[in-house]
Design goal:
By secondary structure, the protein is an alpha+beta fold. It contains 13 helices and 9 strands. It has one domain (34-267): Alpha-Beta Complex (endopeptidase fold (from Nostoc punctiforme)). It has a 7-stranded mixed β-sheet. A two-stranded parallel ribbon has the order 7-8. α1 (2-18) crosses α4.
Length: 277
């Protein structure tokens, strides 16, 4: 038993030290990558596009090492128009550890996600390509999924990824009240008939989205990876440029403003929203 524990410890330490690292990859390959500015990323994003990010916690390093990818997080984007200010707001719909806000499935302006992010300050935008007769998902398509997914909490163990191909074992282990990030995105893409259902959502990890290893329905594809940097000062500058009422919405700090329909829970200070909303 002691030997087994020692082997597990050695593997854990090895994984922490050798997990694929986005910053090191960028240093080696910067000149060969497609780069855009954070401003352009925020302006060209469309409904259904995905963003990939790399955290640096022990759990995220383990995730990167086990899956062999330099990314540990993926989210999907959609636009909304603020009912009071008329501002177009780019939202990220994702399932995350939480950074001072709700853990699990949540919706927040992408600019705030990037501003608060505690991982590496490099991300990738991948644009959804749509060929008729299929269409790009709409704001209403995403909002219609809120009631199904908002109560979902984050799956910290991610054991279901390991057993995704083991039908009976997967069904035995799977907790329907939890998901990890790529499982969540795969699930909503299946709900929207964008991703085929030949694998359970937990089969996918962030690297599959980065390398386009997705079994998409006919008519859908994802384009090249566009890298961008988002320093703390850059994001603070973007937020400082907002109108006062927009800052209140952006930072979830209150103020006498309206909240987007279906997103009332965003203004709550509690770590998790009520599941009956």
């Amino acid at each position: 038993m002691l030997i087994l524990a020692l082997l597990i410890l050695i593997m854990y330490v090895y994984g922490q030290l050798t997990s694929p690292n986005l910053e090191k990859y960028v240093l080696r390959n910067r000149d060969t990558l497609r780069w855009i500015s954070i401003q352009k990323a925020l302006s060209i994003a469309e409904n259904g596009d995905i963003i990939l990010m790399a955290g640096n916690t022990h759990g995220e390093k383990t995730c990167r090492w086990c899956s062999g990818t330099m990314f540990s997080h993926v989210g999907v984007l959609f636009w909304e128009v603020h009912p009071v200010t008329g501002e177009r707001i780019l939202y990220i719909f994702d399932c995350d550890l939480g950074q001072g806000t709700k853990e699990g499935v949540r919706v927040m302006p992408l600019r705030d996600k990037l501003h608060r992010y505690k991982g590496m300050r490099i991300a990738v935008l991948k644009k959804m390509i749509v060929h008729p007769p299929v269409t790009r998902p709409t704001r209403d398509n995403f909002v219609a999924l809120f009631s199904k997914y908002i109560p979902i909490e984050f799956d910290n163990r991610i054991i279901t990824w390991w057993v995704a191909d083991w039908g009976w074992l997967y069904r035995l282990i799977k907790n329907p009240k939890t998901m990890f990030c790529s499982e969540f995105i795969a699930s909503i893409f299946q709900d929207l008939n964008i991703l085929q259902r030949d694998h359970v959502p937990a089969w996918y990890h962030p690297g599959d989205f980065y390398k386009n290893r997705l079994r998409l329905e006919e008519g859908y594809a994802f384009g090249e990876s566009m890298f961008f940097e988002f320093s703390k000062s850059q994001m603070q500058g973007i937020i400082n440029a907002l109108l006062p009422s927009e800052i209140g919405m952006s930072e979830f700090i209150g103020g006498d403003i309206s909240v987007l329909p279906g997103m009332e829970w965003l203004m709550e200070k509690s770590p998790k929203p009520s599941t009956n909303q």
